[in-house]
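FAQ
Q: What does a multi-component entry look like?
A: The components come first, one per line:
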Amino acid sequence: MQDNQQQAYDRGITIFSPDGRLYQVEYAREAVERGSATVGVRTPSGVVLAADRRARSPLIERDSIEKIHAVDDHIAVASAGHVADARQLVDFARRQAQLDQLRYDEAIGVETLTKRVTDHIQQYTQTGGARPFGVALLVAGIEDGEPRLFETDPSGTPYEWQAVAIGGGRDEMQSFLEEEYQAEMDLSGGVDLALEALSVDADVDAAGVNVVTVDVESGTVDTLSDDEVGAHVEELDLGGEE
Amino acid sequence: MQDNQQQAYDRGITIFSPDGRLYQVEYAREAVERGSATVGVRTPSGVVLAADRRARSPLIERDSIEKIHAVDDHIAVASAGHVADARQLVDFARRQAQLDQLRYDEAIGVETLTKRVTDHIQQYTQTGGARPFGVALLVAGIEDGEPRLFETDPSGTPYEWQAVAIGGGRDEMQSFLEEEYQAEMDLSGGVDLALEALSVDADVDAAGVNVVTVDVESGTVDTLSDDEVGAHVEELDLGGEE
Amino acid sequence: MQDNQQQAYDRGITIFSPDGRLYQVEYAREAVERGSATVGVRTPSGVVLAADRRARSPLIERDSIEKIHAVDDHIAVASAGHVADARQLVDFARRQAQLDQLRYDEAIGVETLTKRVTDHIQQYTQTGGARPFGVALLVAGIEDGEPRLFETDPSGTPYEWQAVAIGGGRDEMQSFLEEEYQAEMDLSGGVDLALEALSVDADVDAAGVNVVTVDVESGTVDTLSDDEVGAHVEELDLGGEE
Amino acid sequence: MQDNQQQAYDRGITIFSPDGRLYQVEYAREAVERGSATVGVRTPSGVVLAADRRARSPLIERDSIEKIHAVDDHIAVASAGHVADARQLVDFARRQAQLDQLRYDEAIGVETLTKRVTDHIQQYTQTGGARPFGVALLVAGIEDGEPRLFETDPSGTPYEWQAVAIGGGRDEMQSFLEEEYQAEMDLSGGVDLALEALSVDADVDAAGVNVVTVDVESGTVDTLSDDEVGAHVEELDLGGEE
Amino acid sequence: MQDNQQQAYDRGITIFSPDGRLYQVEYAREAVERGSATVGVRTPSGVVLAADRRARSPLIERDSIEKIHAVDDHIAVASAGHVADARQLVDFARRQAQLDQLRYDEAIGVETLTKRVTDHIQQYTQTGGARPFGVALLVAGIEDGEPRLFETDPSGTPYEWQAVAIGGGRDEMQSFLEEEYQAEMDLSGGVDLALEALSVDADVDAAGVNVVTVDVESGTVDTLSDDEVGAHVEELDLGGEE
Amino acid sequence: MQDNQQQAYDRGITIFSPDGRLYQVEYAREAVERGSATVGVRTPSGVVLAADRRARSPLIERDSIEKIHAVDDHIAVASAGHVADARQLVDFARRQAQLDQLRYDEAIGVETLTKRVTDHIQQYTQTGGARPFGVALLVAGIEDGEPRLFETDPSGTPYEWQAVAIGGGRDEMQSFLEEEYQAEMDLSGGVDLALEALSVDADVDAAGVNVVTVDVESGTVDTLSDDEVGAHVEELDLGGEE
Amino acid sequence: MQDNQQQAYDRGITIFSPDGRLYQVEYAREAVERGSATVGVRTPSGVVLAADRRARSPLIERDSIEKIHAVDDHIAVASAGHVADARQLVDFARRQAQLDQLRYDEAIGVETLTKRVTDHIQQYTQTGGARPFGVALLVAGIEDGEPRLFETDPSGTPYEWQAVAIGGGRDEMQSFLEEEYQAEMDLSGGVDLALEALSVDADVDAAGVNVVTVDVESGTVDTLSDDEVGAHVEELDLGGEE
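Then the predicted structure of the entire assembly, as tokens:
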């Protein structure tokens, strides 16, 4: 398809191209590819989310480059793509979690939450007056004692994964995960695998990576300290730091 | 018709072309063709839905690639096309089924449900501010003790079938069904026919296919286990697995 | 008028061309011409509607290719054109009929119903945010003991007919009707004339034709069985069946 | 002005061209010119409306080709142009007449009614989201014992006439009226003049013309029978009938 | 500025061009220039409005070519430009006058009324979804015993005048008024000046001109009869009538 | 930037160009430049506003070419640019002043009022469906005994000035003010400076200039009579009048 | 990407380009670059904001070129970019601060406030009918005894900084800050660093710079007087003033 024709499907609202594609959604997927890398790994004892959060300046507070967010005490969400859009979806997810807590006095399920988010995303691809969300999310949590790891893409489709990478360099990282993933890893092994996947495409250092785990036993979201991340990085001999 | 003219009917809202066609609806049909294959077979003892759900990565949870969904305990819906759109229509169908249950304290009819869904689809092809749904559905169920199998297309037209294929490779699969369909098959024979039709275009393996039956006797939706599907696949000698 | 200029009147909403035409309405008429043929014949003893409903596959349930619908027990509607649009108008007509029954406790008149439908159609050709309906209807019924036969076209104009054809091959069928129509036929002769008109353009077989009559005496809508249609077809020696 | 520039004023909503013209309104006037001819003649004893209603098929019911409509028992309206639009304006006029009857318990004045209709028409030429009405009306009635004859054009301007022609062949018919009109005709002479004007452009036969009078004495709308029209036509030796 | 650029500012809504102009408003001014001529003259003893209302056919009722309208008993409004638009503004003005009468039990001031009208006009030039009014008005009346004469233009700006011409031939007529206007004329002299101004561009005859005065002494609007206008025309030896 | 690209940012709503500019706002500034000149001068004893209000015809009432308006008894507003837009903003300002008087029973502050007006202007530059205001205002008043002089521009930014010129010839007039302004002038000196600035670009005569002062002592708005203005003009030997 | 393609993503609403970018947001960032420079520096004892506010005329009141605003007594906001947009966001921030004070009777947190503002900004980049805000803000304040410094960008992303520059010349100033920033500066050293950063790109004089500090000890916003700023400038030997 030449450029001229393609242009016709870029304007105004999200509509089908003659070959049945939604270009605005595909372009939103490009926005995800432009984002920095994020990896999720599910192990029997919990789920790991690891995200690249290298700063464009040494003076920026790393904590403000939020890539992984706790939605409630047992679910965390990592994002890749347009940062401001990610924040909207995280807020939406948090409101959904609070709503369920208030209504039913019990924590929202990981799958239920994921589907609420993908329904919300889909609306922005079908009705006019808005653009799609330019972000993919990884939703990690414990549901009925089981670790769950979901991906939402810009079309509004949910996928459940054992291990998955989103954002810049996704293809290389996903191939690495497919080769190295073992179903019976422990949580620490999951952290190692996630960090190794992130380092496929670029050097990794402890301060430049955000790592969060959701533990089956405790059922809660934990953020690894820079020291904890550093220990893993050093052990794995990743990155170019001396 | 040259490309330039065609472009004129692609933009903004769904309007008629000079030869009386609705291009956005036809493009939505292309989105269905881009989807993976789905087959429905009606037998005197029940209806079979079988759908290709091969994953793009071995690490994806196959259960999360939903292609067949129970709408209530006696109706199932399979889809081909834009996955996020399918989820919206399935949710719509579920809400309709629950509404009828609440209002009249009885289960919604298969035909009634199908027409509610097609009315909903048609609205999105006539009024502005939205694109058509890029998905076709097969609706299977038991109504007054009779097995029923319907198709909804992106224009919002319902069709009732004895056996039907939608999605990628539809034409070849439908020809196969027309040659091989026998009105007096039992449900197991229906599963065989559906799996054979799916394999016309590509290898089939048990884990890559989702099979659901709606049984006249029990009146309920049942999902075949991987082992059950595997037994059929092996017996039929389908796919390239050793 | 060259193609370039014509394009200008195709986009967005339905507007006048420099020569006073509404192209979107004319294109909707093309959608009617693309539909399969439908014929209506009025006789002193009742009205006949006959519609081609040949299926694109032998596995499709012919009953689901609805071309003639009872609006209430004394009025039937046949359609040609965009099927999903036809369903909307039939639903609209049924709601109007029910409304009158509830409000005035008497059956709606055929002419009144037709005009409600054409008003509804016209709205879609004048105000923005929607496309015209791509369908023509034949409305047949008994009003005050008199048989009535109306056509609605995509502009929203009602016409009353003695005999009329809509859909693919309309011109040839209408010419045939003008030559062969006799005011004093009985209802059976009306069925014969309708079937002969349908066969002008293509072979006719009993299963491929839907025939409905509205009888003056009984005042009710009756659908002919395949056997009854078959008897007429055989007697007339229509179609290519042996 | 070249075609390219003109195109710019055809799209979307009705806006001014650089030379201060409203093209959509002018194109709507073309729609009137494309309609069949209608003539109005005012005499001291009443007003005559005569309209060409030749059918495109001998099987169409001439009564369904409505060109002249009673708005209430003392006002009639004839139209030329887009038929479905005419029906909307006639319905609007009838609602206005009923409203006044209900509110003030007296019949609406002919001029008042005309201005309500033209206000309604003007709205459709100034605010967006709709196209102008493609129809002109002649409004004939008795007000305070005086015969009145008004025209409404697609811009929404009312004109009062002694005798006027609208629709196809308007210019020739109007010239004929200007030459032949005499202020002191009786109603029968008015019918003759209207029929002669209609025949300027084409043959006239009794069944193909709709004639309505509004009589000062009785103050009511009367439709001439085919026999009455036929007598006038024969006497005048119009048309090509033998 | 070339044609291509200019086109860009003609479409959809009224926006600024690069040199700070509002083309739709300027084009609406062209619509005024296309209208027939109207003149206003203020004298110490009252205000005169005179408008050309020549008919396109001798059969049209001149009274229906309304160019001057009484808004209430002490204010009259004359218009030039798009006739249907003028009617809307006159109706708006009348509603404003009635509203003030009802609310405050006193007649609306001429300046107040003019500003209400110009505010209304301005709205149509700034917010989308509508085109500007294609008409200019002259508002004449008595306020606190003083004669007032205002003009409203299509941008929504009010101007107060001693003597002013609008519509076709405005420039020549205004030059004539500037040369001939004398502050101390009586009302009859005002009528003469207005008629002479109208005749600058074309012949004037009594029936083709509408003349209205608003008298300081009586404080009321009076329409001159054809005889009264004829006397002035004859005395002034205007037009080409013998 | 070439013309073609620039066009893209002119249409529909106000959006950013690739170099971060809002063209519709800049074009609105051009509309200000097309307006006649207006000058404001602040002195310790009060603020002076002087505006060119030369008429396009000697018959126009100069008072109706309003360029300076009292908003309440202690604040005056002068405008340059699109006159009808200026009237809307002045009305908006007056309503704000009245609202504060009613709510808090005290006069609105000059700065508060200016910011309300600029907020209102900004809305029209960011949200769709409308164009920006094509006018700049000077707001002059006394607040807590201090003279204040503000400018509002079409972007909705407020500026406070000691002396400022807006409208046609702004640059030359502003340079003049910068050279000649002295902080310790009395009010009469302020009037002189304002008139001299206005005369930089063109001749000035008393009747063609509107001068208003807001006096610190009285705290009220005063309009200078033609004689008072004439005295200043004569003394300064401005303009070409003999 | 060539110009033609780029144009397609500039129009109407904010949509994704084929490479996943939001051009309107990027152009809004250009509007920030066109603004004058603003610097923020965080020290253990408080936060410093310094902004260039050089005037285009010596007669403009410097105080009216507001670049730094107190949101409440413990938070200040500085802006770079489109001034009128900045005012809207500052007003929004103030309303949020007041709302929290009223609702919870405690001061809003610096991070909470920043996120409310960025949510508001993001809405304007995703839903149609408006353009993005063309401004970046620095939000400085004391939260739980800790100094905080945030940036909001036109996409609606919040960043926390130790030291940051926005507006014209950002890149050079940020490099300077990265080289010279020391975590253990006192507040006076912070002021020095901010002024030196501002002077990287241009001369600095006391009157042309606005400096505000938020002190940890007092917890309040303080504006430095021209003399205080002058002392720093002199000491640092910045600018070209003698």
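Q: Is there any commentary attached?
A: Sometimes. For this entry: Residues 1-12 of chain C have pLDDT under 50 and may be disordered.
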